[in-house]
Amino acid sequence: MNRLHFSIDIKAEKNKIWNALWDDSLYRDWVSVFFEGSYAVTDNWKEGSTVLFLAPDKSGIYSIVEKHVPNEVIQFKHIGTVVNGKEQPIDDETKIWSGASEIYRLAEGKDSNTLMVEVDVMDEHLGFMKSTFPKALEKIKNNCS
Question: Is the entire prediction scored with pTM above 0.90?
Answer without folding.
Answer: yes
